[in-house]
Amino acid sequence: MAVSPSTMAAVRQSGAIPNAEFLLAAEGIRKEFPGVVALDDVSFRLKRGTVHALMGENGAGKSTLMKILAGIYRPDSGEVRLKGVGIRLQSPLDALENGIAMIHQELNLMPFMTVAENIWIRREPKTRFGFIDHGAMRRMTQDLLDRLNIAIDPEIEVRHLSVASRQMVEIAKAVSYNSDVLIMDEPTSALTEKEVAHLFTIIRDLRAQGIGIVYITHKMNELFEIADEFSVFRDGKYIGTHASSDVTRDDIIRMMVGREITQMFPKEEVPIGEVVLSVKDLTLANVFRDVSFDVRAGEILGVAGLVGSGRSNVAETLFGVTPASSGTIELFGKPVDITSPTVAIKNCMAFLTEDRKDTGCLLILNVLENMQIAVLQDRFVKGGFVQEGAIESTCEDMARRLRVKTPNLDERVENLSGGNQQKVLIGRWLLTDPRILILDEPTRGIDVGAKAEIHRLVTEMARNGVAVIMISSEMPEVLGMSDRIMVMHEGRVTGFLDRDEATQIKVMELAAQ
Amino acid sequence: MNSKAAEAAAPLATRQRRRRVPPELSIFLVLVGIALVYEILGWIFIGQSFLMNGQRLTIMILQVSVIGIIAVGVTQVIITGGIDLSSGSVVGMTAMIAASLAQSSTWPRALYPSLTDLPFIIPIGVGLLIGLLAGFINGQLIARTKIPPFIATLGMMVSARGISKWYTKGQPVSGLTDQFNFIGTGIWPVIVFLVVALIFHIALRYTRYGKFTYAIGANVQAARVSGINIEAHLIKVYAIAGLLAGLAGVVTAARAQTAQAGMGVMYELDAIAAAVIGGTSLTGGIGRITGTVIGTVILGVMTSGFTFLRVDAYYQEIVKGLIIVTAVVIDVYRQKKRTKH
Prior knowledge:
Chain A is α/β, with parallel strands linked by helices. In chain A, 34% of the residues lie in helices and 25% in strands.
């Protein structure tokens, strides 16, 4: 049975709903994005008055499921039931009116409006003349904040508040909708220990009032501290639900990573040469600190860590996109000051960024224009003029070598598939003959065939003596391709693992701490 | 062999198959269409041909060549994703300053009596330099302080206009040498326009400068990661736009054989219109000088066609506005269609 949201709201108000066993239940949810199955026959059940944690690696499907429960995505199939009644949510607002509130990682408050205005937006109390009744709104806000033990001035503009306080405002806003379900996406990622403690007190209060809380986290210790139950997801599949008192840390890690490495990785043993890149105490204020490592010619250094561990930031700093606050970078034994990507390229570095669309592709330009742009810095140019014939045939050869599937070099890159776009970008960097290749999620969002080809290319580069740094969220990829793995957690390096000793569990232990 | 296997075996077609219909063709057809409409209306209402009149065609192009010179610079700015509102005012400022150095000793009220009868190269050179400087300041502001190009060039627009008024306290500068005026006579302005267009057509298509300009407009983050020095490049592009506005100012003064503080008012908007009608996308990354040249000619045809049909000047402006908006609507529609793939 599925009813319209307005009917649902009416039913809710009448209080006619029988006490269903579960507050919120999702059954057999499937969601596909172009080229990826994000969720495959996933189930999830939230009990009244509990905190239910969602665990899983990056890309396991947690966020997609939450977005379905919060009305942001619509499932391709499957059913969501709120207190036993099937609902079809059309929008986040719809979810909110049905009593499901989501608190996003990036907080969604309007910085130039007051706390009260943010909480009651669209529902402001009105005076007889239809104007906003600021007095009433302030009192309502004060009552609400008092009830939650939150000490924030209702009249202050949100931009003056700390991240923690903003989060409290978001929670108050959710509570003001009389929400039954509160979804929190990594709420503690930007909080200090004291703020976390306060947040947990509030969460416990809400739980005591019968609210069900869905809590996404990467932090194992929080799970044991605050969650009553947890569900584990892996590769878009539901693995299981347990009470957090029944399990140990190791059990959870095993549930999170317990997959067979089925993909083939064309890893070859190649002679490893001299140290090419040596990083010491590299720090970017408030993002990561004291990162030190060496990479040798022919070596593939895998970098593992969860989202937010600072992996990509280290890569960006190495390449001069966000120059370091302190620390040293030595290339071929000489200290260099990499202040911009231009300097990095001059020093034989190449950087395949994580976000193909935002920082990689020139989408509206063609394959040739995309491929040639980096190498034109110092080659294929005479007296300012591009040597069209030479660069074209070089790019054509590169496109053939990488097996880019495109009708011709004149095709706009936005018309290519993700895998082929990625190959074009790899081609862009291979043309510059790099000695150090930094790859950030080189195979994210591309199909299996293209993945294997990219792995083959990376291996080939290593064989040619290139030092490769490969950041990846895909455990099999990191384990399969790397000679050594550097693991990061919350802006720090937590350990190095050699190829023979590295296992999924060891990596996860270092990554989740 | 099925088609899939063929694709895998030969992922790239040969170079011969790479020629396509140039994007300017559609806008060129629009130009032809507009001209034909005038031709037909001409025969019906006036009883004479619109096109079969060499003098009219010359005047038509002559009228827009100053706009065209500016538009060549503005096109490059728009390709980077920016905008230049200052060009009209820079025309006024450079016209005044160049003219003040081009006065003849026979003229009784020279601004600098000791600096009369200078060789024509000096006023032209100074005019170009002033334009270059204005563009350089625009570029510095945009690249260093990261203020939006709209604001930076708006400031320059107001200030440069102020300078041209302050320079002679509003008095016109007249009595220019014949040598200087020469550049504005006959079809010289048209030649200057076409040479400038050719130079920057080549620069955009065949030089590193051009490739980088498109890359910045297409995706500035990706361009930065690819090693392009965004700041230096933007300064270059705005400086070139300023230089061309300066050149337009010199030509304007020479053509009018005098300079006034109000010269070039609204030229920046005509130049932007010419670029946009010619297919330059305001979101950046797309645009060609050939399109801008055709766009400029369309503006000229429209104006002289209205005059030819004796349409009231008020209506002319109304219709011109409609055509500019239509061009952008078509551009937006084309963008949308493209992203559907």
